[in-house]
Write a structure and sequence with these properties.
The structure holds two protein chains of two kinds.
Chain A lengths: L12 H4 L7 H18 L2 H4 L9 E5 L5 E5 L6 E5 L7 E5 L1 H8 L5 H6 L4 E4 L1 H14 L3 H8 L4 H15 L11
Parallel strand pairs in A: 1-4
Antiparallel strand pairs in A: 1-2, 2-3, 4-5
Chain B lengths: L2 E5 L3 H10 L3 E4 L17 H13 L3 E6 L8 H13 L4 E4 L2 H10 L4 E4 L8 H11 L3 E3 L6 H9 L4 E8 L11 H6 L15 E6 L2 E6 L2 E6 L15 E3 L2 E3 L7 E3 L4 H6 L4 E4 L6 H19 L18 E2 L9
Helix pairs in contact in B: 1-2, 1-9
The chains are: A alpha+beta, B alpha/beta.
Chain lengths: 178, 326
């Protein structure tokens, strides 16, 4: 949980910079597969959006040179990566670690907003609906990624835990941590 | 031990509250029947039944807030909510409207009735009227009373009292405040939303953040200042050559230090505000207050709090319990 002066770990430039050069289409495709898996596992992710299911959401990790554009859908959710800020109904921006902590229930979204670690633009209702839907689904991105790799998933989890300890980034659901 | 009544805007938050040590959890249906009708929040009927079962297995109770005021011609929505709360196994319904209290007392006499803070019952006569007329068993006191006033009330009533100890601070006569309606046309009383997010906009320019409600700028903050939620009562206005928070500073209630005094005043239950907050907030605040009520129960001092980061304006106040305001 954050305190007033939380210093969020940022993605090292060495890791972030290659994203300026690599083709984004395959990464977008991989993120879309991951997102569809999450929607299948957590249908509440869509149902809690209510009327905002047709909204578009820009998620902008400010320490990465790309922005994710989410188009929610029960069966054909899409995520695309963009180097230039995409048009969206709502935009949520902050350090990647803050955004991951929000997804994993590590930090409180309002507290991040009050401290201005998180910035919201556009349709505030849509942004709130997305935040609440994600919070209720208790998503664990580490487990979802491991799940994509089939039988190798169990082997992957210790590496995710190690990466979490080394980077200080919340890579797993808060309740799943020791 | 004093009862800890904790918020849950989602089933995940309910589980977090129970796991963190809440004695009681309050929540609402995902419609206009409760005063936290925000996007993506609240429970459908099946989720409520599952939540009640989860809480019961761990020795906790669930209260259902049905605390807005029914629209004429649409009372059925509120009547169904009362029936469905009872069917789900809720321990009590938290009600505010006189007509709905009468309906619940007549048609669902076995469902315990609590009086919502939205009813703004702030003196013994009003509370005794609700108790004698509708069989109300507990009243949630408005956040405008001092500890001495709460003590005086408890001496003259036979029902339990519940008071807010942490979270968003509303200093208006709740259930009667029209500030949100004045600007947005929507209110917590009728629509379940104070300063609805559909009317909220944030504009950042050169590091300055403007928080707007219904198109009006309510607050401007410099680069490093905490961001507010633009409720009119916590806005920054200019008046008589002065600029400031005319009604109320953007700060939150934290009455943890007053728990022993509230126990002494005869208060039964301590309420944490925040159904619109995340499960991370719920878990941390509940853990902190559970430790506090356990300490007070053992005659120990209240442990020092660590909750400042979770408060609006990142500042806390003891509110009306100690009236030190301008």
């Amino acid at each position: 949980m954050s305190d007033i002066h939380t210093e969020f770990p940022t993605v090292p430039l060495l890791l972030a910079s290659p994203l300026r050069l690599v083709p984004l289409a395959p990464l977008s495709q991989a993120l879309t597969i991951l997102a569809r898996r999450m929607v299948a596992n957590h249908p509440g992710l869509i149902s809690r959006l209510g009327p905002y299911v047709s909204s578009s959401f820009a998620v902008d990790p400010t320490d990465l040179p790309v922005t994710l554009l989410l188009h929610p859908h029960p069966t054909s959710m899409r995520i695309t990566l963009h180097r230039d800020p995409p048009r969206a109904d709502a935009r949520i921006a902050g350090p990647l670690s803050a955004l991951l902590g929000l997804v994993h229930g590590t930090w409180d979204g309002d507290a991040l907003f009050f401290s201005r670690d998180l910035v919201i633009d556009g349709d505030t209702s849509a942004a709130l609906a997305l935040r609440n839907a994600i919070d209720d689904c208790e998503i664990d991105l580490g487990a979802e990624i491991a799940g994509l790799t089939g039988p190798f998933g169990r082997l992957l989890m210790p590496f995710i835990a190690l990466a979490e300890r080394r980077t200080g980034m919340p890579l797993r659901r808060a309740e799943a941590r020791p | 031990m004093m009862e800890l009544v904790c918020p849950a805007g989602t089933p995940a938050a309910l589980r977090a509250a129970v796991d963190a040590g809440a004695h009681t959890i309050y929540c609402g249906f995902a419609d206009e029947t409760n005063a936290r009708n925000f996007p993506g929040l609240n429970f459908n009927r099946a989720e409520l039944a599952e939540g009640v079962a989860y809480a019961r297995r761990r020795g906790a109770k669930v209260l259902v807030a049905i605390n807005t005021f029914p629209r004429a011609g649409a009372e059925d929505i509120w009547h169904r909510a009362v029936a469905d709360a009872e069917a789900a196994g809720a321990h009590a319904a938290i009600l505010a409207d006189l007509g709905l209290l009468a309906y619940a007392a007549e048609h669902h006499p076995n469902l315990r009735r609590h009086l919502s803070v939205q009813a703004a019952a702030a003196n013994p006569d009003a509370i005794n009227f609700y108790a004698n007329t509708f069989g109300v068993r507990r009243v949630v006191l408005p956040r405008v009373l001092t500890v001495a006033e709460i003590t005086a009330i408890n001496r003259e009533i036979d029902v339990e009292t519940e008071v807010f100890v942490f979270g968003g601070l509303c200093v208006m006569a709740e259930g009667r405040c029209s500030l949100s309606s004045y600007i947005t046309g929507k209110s917590p009383n009728m629509n379940g939303v104070c300063s609805p997010p559909s009317h909220v906009q944030y504009v950042e320019s050169r590091g300055e953040l403007s928080a707007k409600l219904g198109g009006y700028t309510i607050q401007r903050n410099g680069k490093d200042a905490p961001a507010p939620y633009p409720t009119l009562c916590k806005g920054c206005f200019s008046s008589q050559d002065k600029v400031g928070h005319v009604f109320e500073d953007p700060s939150s209630l934290d009455a943890s230090d007053l728990i022993p005094a509230l126990a002494e005043a005869g208060v039964t239950a301590l309420k944490i505000e925040g159904r619109q907050r995340s499960r991370a907030y719920v878990a941390q605040v509940v853990r902190s207050f559970r430790a506090a009520v356990e300490a007070v129960d053992k005659g120990l001092p209240v442990p020092p709090g660590t909750l400042a980061s979770l408060t609006e304006g990142q500042a806390a106040t003891t509110g009306a319990y100690r009236k030190t305001w301008r």
